[in-house]
Amino acid sequence: MKKWCSFRELQRWPILFVQRIMYSPCAFQKKPRAISSKAVYSREGLPSWQQTRGIFGRQSGGTKQQSLDDIAKGIREREYKRIVVMAGAGISTPSGIPDFRTPGSGLYDNLQQYNLPYAEAIFEINFFHHNPKPFFALARELYPGNYQPNITHYFVCLLHIKNQLLRMYTQNIDGLERMAGIPSKMLVEAHGTFATATCTVCQRNYKGEELHDDIMEGMIPKCSTCKGVVKPDIVFFGEELPQNFFMHLTDFPLADLLIIMGTSLEVQPFASLSGAVRGSVPRLLINRDPVGPFAWGSQHQNDVAELGDVVNGVAKLADALGWTKELEVLMADGAKKDTR
């Protein structure tokens, strides 16, 4: 048995990790079922092999712990030019969108008026087929245009403008990333989008704008061809993830910096991606609480956690970069466009 891996083998390791995300029978649930290459949106906990990244991580033998200023220096000096961002509901709550999980203010806690058998049912595909009305009532509240992007979205847009963003992976369905100016080709909306829609019967495709009037008027959108229910391309529990989630998974082995912000890293398979970068790549967490590998105590020497309010954390990073003025101009321009 070999004790050491060759450098070439180490380089190949992240690709193998990505393949495990795509094909592992246990990647998306606690109890493995039949092997399938189709990932399903799951509420289950993290798979045990998530911690594999530590095998190749940089260890703590006397090396200086990285700081937020070190990360900022690397971005400013363009040491990091292939930055991947992972984001969750925590970047949207400052825009007024309620979090899915925060007790007392989360979306799940505010759904009792719809007489659901349980809160999660509103995002379960079988329940939707039985009764789509509660989802469309909620969609009316969440529909793009009801809320405005904040500094976190514009910061990622600024990374793109500076040609340093490889891709943004978001769990959010609110469309604030697009509104902030991040092009769709730079986005992987892991849990779907309101930008497109599909008939649940004949599979005819629609643009999201075509559903707007019906949703705003409290009506269920119907297909003009077969009169079936037209569902926004939001990924429900029990549905397959969008194809572009898999098309771009090789972003992670290519990344030279991973920024994770505003996410609990609880929903699979999105959460597993935090371990898909090379072991030498810094991971910056900007979050209210430590999550994922930052909570397991499996941080690496070049990982950095900026805990607390996400907006304050991003503002602090922008200040360390010397980008505050640019960010303010970008946000002001975005606000002008939104009022036109």
From TrEMBL:
It catalyses: N(6)-acetyl-L-lysyl-[protein] + NAD(+) + H2O = 2''-O-acetyl-ADP-D-ribose + nicotinamide + L-lysyl-[protein]. Its EC number is 2.3.1.286. GO terms for cellular component: nucleus. Gene3D superfamilies: SIR2/SIRT2 'Small Domain, TPP-binding domain. SUPFAM superfamilies: DHS-like NAD/FAD-binding domain. Binds 1 zinc ion per subunit. Coiled coil: none annotated. It is an enzyme of class 2 (transferase). Transmembrane segments: none annotated. Its cofactor is Zn(2+). The keyword Cell inner membrane does not apply. This is NAD-dependent protein deacetylase.
